[in-house]
From TrEMBL:
Keyword Signal attributed: yes
Name of the featured protein: Sulfonate ABC transporter substrate-binding protein
Source species of the chain: Amycolatopsis bullii
Main location: periplasm
CDD domains according to UniProt: PBP2_SsuA_like_6 (cd13563)
Membership in a protein family: Belongs to the bacterial solute-binding protein SsuA/TauA family.
Subcellular location: Periplasm
InterPro entries xref list: ABC_SsuA_sub-bd
Pfam families on file: NMT1_2
Entry keywords, A to Z: Signal
Length: 337
């Protein structure tokens, strides 16, 4: 099984889609490879909503759209976040709360695409005998500290009038956290698919809270450096166009697509299909709606401010990040319908 956080997609695409490496931040490297002259390095890791990038690569869709992409897979999700923040890669697949944490630390980033929302594929899973979040008081809970499912865990604890101080937090990378829970070393784990499948192999285990209980709290994105947007807007547009073309290809080639994505995720095709309802892949129109300012969880600016209040209040961030330049909807608006 591969390691790292947040996977997302699958038959999800069969549901929603029916609606329809390393380069320096100071400048992308030049290359004469097919697909364009400027090489763009994109990071991604294990989450169903990001595996379509693997499909795009294997089907030659980046080159078809005139962009030269070095697609870099990270076994550890946090490493991919740090790579984007440090300028080691040009773009990355990551969540809104992780992006806000990076911006709080000084990173200059832009969200140019919403891949999906987590609607159940992030879970807090507990051993037999623990039936609610309230039962976690005093128990050992494994989670990748500072990453997306740490945020989910804190939200769940808050809903039960508990805080992190009420549990014994065991900080482990997500894959290791799931393995530790499976082997009985901890009482519970907070993880995302496909690592939830590993955790649920423990006899008697069950999900006691999921992202479905917190609508809109965990959106997933293609995030780029602001420098990439400024210096190479045509390439960014090509990336966004490729994404939507990939979703169409997946819709038209479901079995082949699931095979590619399950292989990348290190899970069976049956397991991959089981993630369906837990990941809501966004259409172009859903992207436009999300980027539009508003006062509900559907809107990124509203959700961002809720997340900022939370991560600052809980100490996950030391200062409020600026949202200037963060939400850039020009590319989804210009994408072919």
């Amino acid at each position: 099984m591969i390691s790292r956080p947040r996977p997302r997609l699958l038959t999800v695409l069969l549901t929603l889609l029916t609606l329809a490496g390393v380069t320096a931040l100071s400048g992308c490297s030049d290359s004469s490879a097919s697909g364009g002259g400027t090489k763009i390095t994109i990071g991604f890791s294990a989450w169903p909503g990001w595996f379509p990038w693997q499909v795009a690569q294997e089907q030659g869709l980046f080159a078809k759209n005139g962009v030269n992409v070095d697609l870099k897979y990270f076994d550890n999700y946090t490493d991919s976040i740090n790579a984007l923040s440090s300028g080691a890669i040009d773009a990355n697949s990551q969540t809104l709360n992780d992006t806000l944490s990076s911006v709080s630390g000084g990173a200059k980033l832009s969200i140019v695409l919403v891949n999906d929302n987590s609607t159940g594929n992030d879970k807090v899973i507990a051993r037999d005998g623990i039936t609610s979040i309230a039962d976690l008081k005093g128990k050992k809970v494994a989670v990748e500290q500072g990453a997306v499912d740490h945020y989910l865990l804190l939200l769940a604890l808050q809903s039960a009038n508990l805080t992190e101080k009420d549990i014994q937090l065991v900080n482990l990378p997500t894959d290791a956290a799931a393995a530790a829970f499976k082997s009985g070393q901890v009482d519970a784990v907070a993880a995302f698919a496909p690592f939830t499948s590993t955790a649920l192999e423990r006899a008697g285990s069950r999900a006691i809270s999921t992202s479905a209980e917190f609508p809109g709290a965990i959106p997933d994105h293609l995030v780029t450096s602001q420098k990439l947007v400024k210096d190479h807007p045509k390439d960014v547009q090509a990336l966004v166009n490729t994404w939507f073309e990939t979703l169409t290809w997946i819709k038209d080639n479901k079995d082949a697509a699931v095979k590619i994505m399950a292989k990348r995720g290190g899970v069976s095709e049956a397991d991959y299909k089981s993630y369906d309802a837990g990941t809501t892949i966004f259409t172009r129109q859903q992207n436009i709606d999300a980027f539009t300012p508003g006062v509900t969880a559907q809107h990124l600016d509203f959700q961002a401010n809720k997340i900022i209040d939370f991560i600052v209040g809980t100490g996950l961030a030391q200062q409020r990040p600026s949202l200037d330049g963060l939400f850039d909807d020009q590319f989804v608006k210009a994408a072919p319908q």
